[in-house]
Amino acid sequence: MKKKTGHYGEQLSRKYFINKGYLILNSNYRTRLGEIDIIAQKDDTIIFVEVKTRKTMTFGLAREAVNYKKQVTLIKLAEQYIQYKKLKNMNFRFDVMEVQWNENKNQYEINHIENAF
């Protein structure tokens, strides 16, 4: 169930970025260190995106799950990606997508936090 929720949130987030004029470069970029949910580009900026989807507030706000340890991992993954793709003359940022999903009503709300850390 958790995987389904996360997958749905990532799908909604990709659609959100495409509608805003971003180019999706990678989804679920994975190395032995971990995974970046979405890597997108807008103009000369590469955006590394962590998507957090919640159905309830039981465990707090979705963005609170992107703690310091998770941020450090994402930064290391981004550094690997930048070196692997030999990206030069680009700007980089880390965004968090909070997706609050009410499955019963089939409604969702997206909070896009730019430059989250």
Automatic annotation (TrEMBL):
GO molecular function: nucleic acid binding
Listed SUPFAM superfamilies: Restriction endonuclease-like (SSF52980)
InterPro entries associated with the record: Restrct_endonuc-II-like, tRNA_endonuc-like_dom_sf, UPF0102_YraN-like
Family: Belongs to the UPF0102 family.
Protein name: UPF0102 protein BJL90_16630
Source organism of the structure: Clostridium formicaceticum
Taxon lineage: Bacteria, Bacillati, Bacillota, Clostridia, Eubacteriales
